[in-house]
């Protein structure tokens, strides 16, 4: 979705396309960090350890997103900060909404095995 939206916006305004691409990459980096850290103890019988790793991963993800968007908004004056923040949070929300669709089982037989 990041690339599709960035290409569509680039036809209208090149800077908007680059801003959306930057915002999407920041969202992807934050989510990748979260996935790596939160799933570290996935399947562990120690529920506290799973919850602790998920909460630390969430804090780290948002720190990455906030620091990166602030750095990009301050250093690249040509980018529109509103478009940058909207793309980061919009693409992040879209990814969270699509996650159940992307990871669901492909058939009923796999659910019972």
TrEMBL record:
Keywords: Membrane, Transmembrane, Transmembrane helix. The chain crosses the membrane at residues 59-76, 83-103. It comes from Reinekea marina. It comes from the Bacteria. The lineage of its organism: Bacteria, Pseudomonadati, Pseudomonadota, Gammaproteobacteria, Oceanospirillales. This is ATP synthase subunit I.
């Amino acid at each position: 979705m990041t690339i599709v939206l960035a290409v569509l916006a680039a036809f209208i305004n090149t800077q908007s396309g680059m801003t959306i691409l930057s915002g999407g990459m920041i969202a992807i980096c934050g989510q990748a960090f979260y996935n790596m850290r939160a799933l570290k103890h996935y399947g562990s019988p120690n529920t506290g350890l799973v919850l602790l790793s998920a909460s630390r991963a969430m804090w780290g993800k948002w720190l990455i997103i906030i620091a990166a968007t602030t750095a990009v908004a301050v250093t690249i004056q040509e980018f529109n900060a509103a478009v940058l923040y909207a793309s980061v949070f919009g693409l992040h929300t879209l990814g969270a909404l699509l996650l159940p669709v992307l990871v669901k089982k492909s058939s009923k037989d796999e659910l019972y095995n």
